[in-house]
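Study this chain:
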Amino acid sequence: MAKQDALKNHIEVLRNSIPELKGVLLASNEGLPIAHSLSNGADPNRVAAMAAAASSLGRRISDNMSVGTLGEISITGEEGMLFIYSAGTKAVLAVMGPQGSNAGLIHLEARSAAKDIAELF
């Protein structure tokens, strides 16, 4: 299976394992979308750029606060939740869910997906 197909497969498996998700997106650290499944009408280019920027800021904070390598970032708003996971040194995985989503289930599935994606790079 080609790398692009494998990446898309990981996105779809994650999306199918948690049906209430609003979207899943894999982006390069430079902010370019690699693969995505978005149902909330979000622009993948914009989501990729913001996820990469948040990840970059998170890495700088982690380094300066001496807490080790960045693993993930959680953002909770009035209408939804966004989790950004490091997928190795070259990519980030953004997972969007509605307010009240099962964060534990999202973390369980997305951490595993991020690890598997990191191995593809």
Observations:
- The chain has three helices and five strands.
